[in-house]
Design a protein that fits this description.
The chain is α/β, with parallel strands linked by helices. The protein has one domain: Rossmann fold (3-Layer(aba) Sandwich), CATH 3.40.50. It has 8 helices and 10 strands. Strand 9 and strand 10 form a beta hairpin. Keywords: ATP-binding, Cell inner membrane, Cell membrane, Lipoprotein, Membrane, Nucleotide-binding, Transport.
């Protein structure tokens, strides 16, 4: 059920790509000057592919993720998600695409502080239309796979930074999205914890057959992905 929006998960195979952008451009004005953040970005990601987006702070990585995540307007160019041209959709239709096809992991976990680990993973599933029993079972499955089976009823304040980020990963994957967008998902963790969380993220993404676009400045983590793009002066290389 997609409220009439023409998204068909089978179109991922028909079109060959989960995400495809063409001529994606974003500019803004500051102090009377126009600054081009993205300059005609062309990008294609196949189902199940994990792609790194490398670039220093301020290079436009987050801006690109906001564009393809349909979180911000003011972009020019084409954005196709699972074969659907998303750049022309209205606000409600964009919300449906995000709900049905996308998952998000941020540098900071953004968990709801008054909800425990299970409830944080349950909530997006309820919004997606799952029953509470289905959502509880799926949450327990994911959190257990992420080695949090003993922390299901703990609130974020009772979890370590790495544990909080694992809950955020479970939340992003709960609805089995076609594409996960991750913005510096381990950037707030120490190196050892970052390695553990990232390895678990990659394992679960691959097991689900989900595609992922991961923005990072960490060359070592990027080398563990299928492909690496570098964002330089608003263009991909």
């Amino acid at each position: 059920m997609n409220n009439g929006l023409p998204i068909d998960r089978r179109s991922e195979q028909a079109y060959g790509y989960v995400l495809e952008t063409s001529g994606l451009t974003k500019s803004f004005t500051q102090g009377g000057a126009t600054i081009d953040v993205l300059r005609g970005v062309d990008l294609a990601i196949a189902p199940g592919e994990i792609v790194a987006l490398l670039g220093p702070s301020g290079s436009g990585k987050s801006t690109l993720l906001q564009a393809v995540g349909l979180l911000e307007g003011g972009f020019q160019g084409s954005i196709k998600i699972a074969g659907t041209e998303a750049s022309k959709l209205n606000a409600h239709e964009r919300t449906v695409v995000r709900r049905d096809s996308l998952g998000f992991v941020y540098q900071f976990h953004h968990l709801l502080p008054d909800f425990n680990a299970t409830e944080n993973v349950v909530l997006p599933q309820l919004v997606h239309g799952a029953t509470r029993a289905e959502a509880d079972a799926r949450s327990a499955e994911l959190l257990t796979q992420l080695r949090l089976g003993h922390r299901l009823t703990h609130r974020p304040s009772q979890l370590s930074g790495g544990e909080q980020q694992r809950v955020a990963v479970a939340r992003a994957l709960a609805n089995k999205p076609a594409l996960v967008l991750a913005d510096e998902p381990t950037g707030n963790l120490d190196e050892h914890t970052a390695d553990i969380v990232f390895a678990e993220f990659v394992r679960l993404v691959r097991e689900q057959g989900t595609a992922a676009l991961v923005a990072t400045h960490n060359e070592r983590l990027a080398a563990r992905m299928d492909r690496v793009f570098r964002l330089h002066e608003g263009r991909l290389a």
